[in-house]
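In response to the reviewer comment on reproducibility (Comment 2.3), we provide here a single inverse folding case reported in full, input and output, so that an independent group could reproduce the run without further information from us. The structure tokens appear first.
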């Protein structure tokens, strides 16, 4: 290789090194361009100053109307079923005291009359002895004998004046016969069944003409003159309802007054609520039917030192946000009452900034700004 070629190559290499060094130098001298910072605006929240006042609240819930009496008609005696004052049919209504069923009772009636006849004979047989041995009480026994009627209930048993008189009557089975007849009189009444209330037959199992026996289920009756509205309340509403409260019941614009009969002391497992029972009287002006759904408006109650806020502002059952020094801060509150859309609370410092809206992805100590 010639000397000239070697010098040329070395020159090229030196020139390349000098070029790279020059580029690095000028690059280091160039001012670094920094990206402009973009500041994000703080999220805005709606707030209200905490102020406590008096507030009138009401409780309004819907309930279902039920009968106050549901009775199974069951016979206690044997015999053929006969018609009463009203037909024995499903849906048939009746009034309190109406004969709703008769059981053939001629045999029982004749047996009772025969027992009374035997009893009269027994009294007649002991009257001479009573007159001789117990003259002071004879007139009372004679009056008792004369008062006994075959087709009428037995008169009241005479007062026994002495132990010897009692022993004598017991030995003649007078006391035993008297109480057996009274028992038969009570049984005879069971052959005629009267309606215990104004109502109707919800269902009928046996028809007129069938043979009934003790324990036979004849029909199911429901009371219709008095009904009760079963209203479920949540736990927050229960303190505002008491037994005896007058309640306004609304049904399609018509109103009727009712009265709280009782408040259950347990929670219904199906609705997770406490049931309140309101008595309602059935009238021609406002006919009531079992199964109707009606709205109950309970009397207004006044709350002291509370603030009404949107229900959406509450989270975790009893927590809210307040704004302190531009940051959110969690606070627990005392809830006096909760409605569908609002809540009445207390427990916050007066004049603090309470957030009155629902916040998404909010956290404690998050920077915010209060909306104008």
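Designed residues, in position order:
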């Amino acid at each position: 290789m010639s000397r000239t070629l070697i010098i040329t190559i070395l020159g090229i290499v030196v020139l390349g090194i000098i070029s790279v060094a020059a580029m690095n130098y000028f690059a280091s001298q160039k001012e670094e361009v920094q990206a402009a910072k973009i500041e994000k605006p703080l999220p805005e929240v709606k707030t209200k100053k905490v102020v406590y006042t008096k507030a009138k609240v009401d409780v309004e819930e819907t309930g279902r109307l039920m009968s106050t009496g549901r009775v199974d008609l069951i016979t206690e005696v044997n015999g053929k079923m006969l018609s009463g004052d009203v037909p024995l049919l499903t849906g048939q209504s009746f009034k309190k005291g109406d004969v709703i069923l008769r059981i053939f009772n001629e045999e029982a009636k004749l047996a009772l009359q025969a027992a009374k006849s035997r009893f009269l004979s027994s009294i007649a047989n002991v009257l001479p002895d009573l007159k001789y041995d117990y003259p002071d009480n004879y007139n009372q026994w004679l009056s008792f004998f004369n008062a006994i009627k075959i087709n009428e209930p037995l008169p009241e048993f005479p007062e026994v004046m002495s132990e010897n008189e009692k022993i004598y009557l017991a030995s003649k089975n007078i006391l035993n016969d008297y109480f057996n007849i009274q028992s038969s009189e009570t049984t005879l009444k069971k052959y005629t069944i009267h309606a215990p209330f104004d109502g109707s037959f919800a269902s009928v199992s046996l028809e007129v003409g069938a043979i009934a026996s003790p324990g036979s289920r004849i029909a199911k009756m429901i009371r219709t003159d008095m009904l009760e509205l079963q209203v479920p309340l949540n736990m927050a509403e229960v303190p505002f309802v008491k037994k005896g409260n007058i309640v306004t019941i609304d049904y399609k614009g018509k109103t009727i007054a009712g009265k709280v009969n009782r408040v259950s002391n347990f929670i219904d497992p199906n609705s997770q609520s406490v049931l309140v029972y309101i008595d309602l009287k059935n009238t021609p002006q406002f006919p009531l039917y079992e199964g109707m759904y009606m709205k109950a408006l309970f009397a207004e109650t006044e709350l002291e030192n509370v603030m009404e806020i949107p229900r959406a502002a509450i989270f975790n059952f009893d927590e809210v946000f307040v704004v302190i020094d531009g940051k959110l801060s969690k606070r627990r509150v005392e809830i006096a009452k909760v409605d569908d859309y609002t809540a009445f609370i207390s427990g916050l410092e007066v004049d603090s900034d309470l957030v009155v809206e629902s916040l998404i992805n909010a956290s404690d100590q998050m920077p915010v700004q209060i909306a104008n």
